[in-house]
Design brief:
1068 residues; Chloramphenicol Acetyltransferase; ten-stranded mixed β-sheet
């Protein structure tokens, strides 16, 4: 394309002769509107803005004002709106622009606030120095970067551009010319659908977007394990807790499990669900599954039952590998199960040699489930070849070797877990698997890091870990052993990457970007130590992968321009399980190559690195997990009082994580509450998919096309979120300070003094954090139990001032008021746990919950504190509970109850009261079993139960003969298998606290009556003892069956039955 300088280049203008000639020759009847149509289309291609306004300036008087301030008098400003959602031809768009400019009225000239940083200057005079000066003055006034001058004299349109330093706009003239030429060939096509890039630009992008071509191994990954088992059998492969496996042991155990699968029988392509917690069992399972050509499908036992059942319905597995955790969920599932926790005797009967099964790279390898738009999770089906590409990409790029030691903290249901757990074994290194309680304990996690060389953590964990290290380590030499650190999943903030460089001085720092559909290894970016990172970049493609950035018509976009990211290459998986239509929609053919649309918006920087800008679809990243927002909407709409809804992910404040916000249109006269909605959603969705805030709207906003416009959804504030109280302002400094703290904690502005803590989204963990802050600032201790009844700022401030006196009840909370002349019912070891029970009891007695503030204080100090190590002891805990009870009630008779561990405390408190000569009328144990009850069955008996449930036909006579001659028992350490009543970090540490206490507990005989309320929904692998093991210790034991599971008997739907039976024993 020819250009000529009409004036000296120092004046700063370039005129494009070819472009002017093309416009004049093709569009003589409407040269100016046609050019504006072309210009706005190219601007759309450069900005990715679908709708924007283009300002057009024309002269009223030429050169009558000499200063910029009065320049507006010389021009009329009009504008037109470009909307890429309307499929115009060039002719149609030209006519629309012409009509708009002729009919619209003049606008005020202001600093440009349009979405495109450009203006157009029209003149009917010949191009002159005065016009150029005016254009520069307009650019200075409106603060735009790009100015186009159109002079239309004697029916000849000339097009000129002020020079710009912005690389974003330098190619616009050439792209205008390319667009005009392409339209000339197909004038009836939609103007937005044309390519504007030159062949040279396309070639440049193709080079930048292609990863290195590497020939990958034709052997499945388990062959590497077999190699290391043969060559370095005594090298440590995996450790978890106190268990270590060498490569030789790992391969032998995996082989025995694989031979069991073959005998079952499992065939190539069969699906095996791993319903397992973090342990070495999961590693054995993966390799055993792959050795027989089966498909590994992990499911988290902590998922809601509805989600687990939905996944099983989709997969239809031939076998489920289980352990004791979460077994009750699978009780009525008609699918064969095999419990790895008690499998040693069975598996020892099988060979340890490598199975001779021919597994090739086209065979399916694994299925990971991600959030789905229809309310159902969707399964991503990958092959053995995808897995080899996955691991070899990591090995080759980051130079991993047998000297590397990895740490795994992720749930095994996320596809990135394969990077953490399989990469070290693929290269002959070692893997350390850590439990959830270690991840929560930053001090312990730091100790673990000092023994490894490689870690990959998500941004959410790093945002907690890195500040902790900065505050608690004088220097960072303790981490000099670490040579590789990486992050991904969410968009990794630049400041997090900078801190990684600062702390881990010997480590290379990388961002890893991808998704399950491209086997995670899509792009990677090494963070330079020579410069400060300003933007989130994900770098360049991994080996055998390529990336394209397209507009919505499948055209490549200009360098530096946003567009949709598409990946091709060996990492692309087969598709989605049982979802052919979705697979065809997301995996598309472009120029004969299969691409996957990952759903992110990005652009190339000047060096060819991809910069991420956000999501294009309705997915968000929560704690590193991709969440399909329509799935949450699906379950919200199942709530009868919700007429319509939309869920979005937003960053509520700078540097914070994404929060899920649900916008609801409620039906007329709805009395719905946020608490009720959360209770509904918890039945179907994991905790990370529950919205933080619920906003009520009269209607969902729409754009001019009557489509939902998410950009118009209002920010949450106290006037639109779902609360039952009206706003009331603060009256003093204390209330103002507390409001400010709540607004920061809940990320909501406009909170009043009478808004309820729990309606705003408060829970027990936030309550503890809030009350700790109150104590720090005002030196006023408020028991956590108080916030149950005094849950507004008005009340908390009154307590701080002394206007409200909190009764000296110590660790007691009144759950239900009653007759003060009657002895109360004490519910031990919980507060919120017993709330539904108290409300359902038909008794006149006061109902109190008892929970130790001392325990909360110790747990807050962390599991490594000396106080934590000394505190967990049943006798000590019993004495503290006894002291709390006797402060409130000095003499009997006493009524005591407790759920799970609380039942043990109730029994021991009763024992101490009886020693004092007091009368105990009731000891009610709510589904409390003796410690170690689940482990009382021998491995042999559990194997028998398993075989009777799943069938004996899978065992040959020879194997069965071996089994029946095994007469020894493998006994495990006693452990309490209770569940916590919440899933937050506080509950995780509390669970560890209880396990530590029970380790030293010795049960003594008890001669007085005890009522045991037993949940009917139980694990097959518990002993079939109705008394849950108490019969040998308690002489006068009465057992009453209650419908429900361990915690379910205390929840609505089941608690009424428990309350009815319990009330019968509340008599004097």
């Amino acid at each position: 394309m020819k250009t000529s300088s009409v004036f000296d280049t120092s004046i700063g203008i370039r005129q494009y002769d070819d472009l002017s000639q093309l416009i004049n020759s093709q569009y003589v009847e409407s040269c100016v509107p046609s050019f504006l149509a072309l210009l706005s289309t190219v601007l759309y291609k450069h900005t990715y803005n679908e709708v924007f306004r283009v300002p057009v300036y024309s002269y009223t008087n030429l050169h009558t004002n000499s200063n910029v301030e009065e320049l507006s008098k010389d021009f009329i400003k009009k504008s037109f709106v470009f909307d890429s959602n309307i499929n115009y031809t060039l002719d149609e768009l030209s006519k629309s622009i012409k009509c708009t400019l002729e009919s619209s009225s003049a606008e005020k000239i202001t600093t440009n606030d349009d979405s495109v940083n450009v203006l157009v200057l029209l003149s009917e005079e010949m191009l002159s120095q005065q016009i150029i000066d005016d254009a520069k003055a307009l650019r200075q006034m409106t603060k735009v970067e790009f100015v186009c001058i159109i002079t239309n004299s004697k029916q000849l349109v000339e097009i000129s551009f002020l020079n710009t330093d912005s690389s974003r706009y330098q190619l616009i003239p050439e792209h205008l010319y390319n667009l005009a030429n392409n339209i000339e060939k197909n004038p009836t096509h939609c103007i937005h659908s044309f390519n504007i890039l030159s062949p040279d630009e396309i070639k440049q992008q193709l080079i930048l977007a292609q990863g290195e071509k590497v020939k990958i191994s034709d052997k499945p990954i388990y062959k590497n394990i077999e190699f290391f088992a043969a060559t370095t059998p005594n090298t440590l492969a995996v450790s978890a807790g106190q268990k270590n496996l060498t490569y030789g042991q790992l391969n032998c155990e995996a082989n025995q499990l694989a031979h069991f699968f073959l005998q079952f029988p499992i065939a190539i392509g069969d699906k095996i669900v791993a319903f397992l917690p973090r342990s070495t069992d999961i590693i054995n399972a993966i390799f055993a599954i792959h050795k027989v050509g089966a498909v590994y499908v992990p499911i988290d036992p902590t998922f809601p039952k509805e989600r687990i059942l939905a996944i099983l319905q989709e997969v239809k597995p031939q076998l489920i590998l289980t352990c004791s955790e979460g077994e009750e969920v699978l009780e009525n599932i008609d699918i064969p199960k095999f419990n790895l926790e008690y499998s040693a005797e069975i598996l020892n009967a099988f060979p340890v040699n490598n199975p001779e099964i021919k597994v090739n790279l086209d065979h399916e390898s694994h299925i990971f489930f991600t959030s789905g738009t229809t309310g159902k999770p969707k399964g991503v089906v990958a092959t053995q070849g995808n897995l080899v590409q996955y691991l070899s990409s990591a090995r080759n790029k980051y130079k991993f070797s047998s000297n590397d030691r990895f740490i795994s903290t992720a749930r095994f249901t996320f596809s990135i877990s394969l990077f953490k757990i399989l990469t070290p074994l693929y290269v002959g290194g070692s893997l350390r698997i850590v439990d959830r309680d270690i991840v929560l304990n930053l001090s312990q996690l730091c100790k673990e890091l000092q023994g490894i060389t490689v870690f990959h953590f998500g941004p959410s964990l790093l945002k907690q870990l890195l500040p902790y290290i900065e505050e608690n380590f004088g220097d960072f030499s303790a981490f000099n052993n670490i040579r590789h650190v990486s992050s991904g999943g969410d968009m990794v903030p630049p400041e997090v990457l900078e801190k990684l460089k600062k702390i881990f001085i010997n480590a290379e720092v990388y961002v890893i970007y991808g998704s399950s559909e491209i086997s995670c290894m899509g792009c990677t970016y090494q963070v330079s130590r020579d410069m400060v990172l300003q933007k989130t970049k994900v770098g360049k493609p991994h080996q055998n992968m390529s990336v394209r950035i397209f507009d919505k018509y499948g055209n490549m976009v200009p360098m530096g321009t946003p567009g949709k990211l598409y990946f091709a290459g060996d990492g692309l998986v087969k598709g989605y399980l049982n979802l052919e239509k979705l697979t065809a929609e997301k995996f598309i053919q472009i120029d004969g190559e299969r691409f996957y649309s990952i759903g992110d918006i990005g652009r190339f920087d000047s060096e060819g690195n991809i910069e991420l800008l956000g999501r294009d679809d309705f997915q968000v990243q929560i704690r590193g997990m991709r969440v399909e927002l329509p799935e949450i909407e699906y379950y919200l709409k199942r709530f009868p009082e919700i007429a319509d809804c939309v869920v979005v992910g937003r960053v509520m404040e700078e540097n914070s994580d994404i929060s899920l916000i649900a916008y609801l249109v409620l039906k007329i006269n709805s009395n719905i509450t946020a608490i009720k909605i959360r209770e509904h959603l918890y039945k179907f969705l994991p905790d990370y998919m529950i919205p933080t805030i619920f906003v009520k709207l009269d209607r969902l906003p729409t754009n001019h096309n009557a489509k939902l416009d998410r950009s118009q959804l209002p920010a949450p504030n106290i006037n639109n979120i779902l609360v039952s109280s009206t706003f009331e302002t603060s009256t003093d400094d204390i209330e103002s300070v507390l409001i400010a703290y709540w607004e920061k904690m809940f990320k909501i502005e406009g909170i009043g003094v009478n808004h309820d803590f729990f309606e705003l989204g408060g829970d027990s963990l936030l309550a503890v954090q809030f009350l700790i802050e109150v104590q720090k600032r005002y030196d006023k201790f408020i028991p956590i139990a108080v916030i149950l009844e005094r849950s507004t700022i008005k009340d908390i401030a009154a307590i701080i001032r002394g206007d409200i006196i909190v009764p000296e009840m110590g660790n007691l909370t009144i759950l239900k008021q009653g007759d003060v002349l009657l002895p109360p019912l004490f519910c031990l070891y919980g507060v919120l746990l017993y709330k539904d029970l108290a409300g359902s009891l038909d008794i006149e007695n006061i109902v109190c919950s008892v929970y130790l503030q001392e325990e909360i204080d110790v747990i807050q100090k962390g599991v490594n504190s000396q106080e934590f190590q000394d505190f967990p002891n049943v006798k000590r805990i019993t004495q503290l509970y006894l002291n709390s009870i006797q402060k409130y009630q000095q003499q009997g008779p006493y009524f005591l109850c407790g759920e799970s561990f609380g039942g043990i405390i109730a029994l021991e408190v009763a024992r101490e009261l009886i020693k004092q000569g007091e009368e105990v009328k009731l000891v009610a144990m709510l589904d409390t079993h003796v410690p170690g009850f689940a482990d009382r069955l021998s491995t042999w008996r559990k194997a028998m139960i398993h075989l009777m449930n799943e069938g004996m036909g899978s065992f040959s006579a020879k194997v069965w003969s071996k089994l029946i001659n095994k007469d020894y028992m493998v006994r495990q350490e006693g452990k309490l298998t209770t569940k916590t009543d919440s899933d937050d970090e506080f509950a995780d540490v509390r669970e560890y606290f209880r396990k530590k206490a029970i380790d030293t507990y010795v049960i003594e005989p008890y001669d007085d009556p005890v009522i045991l309320f037993r949940a009917t929904q139980r694990s097959d692998f518990e002993p079939k003892q109705i008394d849950l093991g108490w019969g040998e210790y308690i002489k006068q034991l009465t057992v009453i069956n209650i419908e429900g599971d361990h915690l379910g008997i205390l929840t609505k739907g089941y608690v009424d039955s428990l309350a009815t039976e319990l009330s019968k024993y509340m008599t004097l």
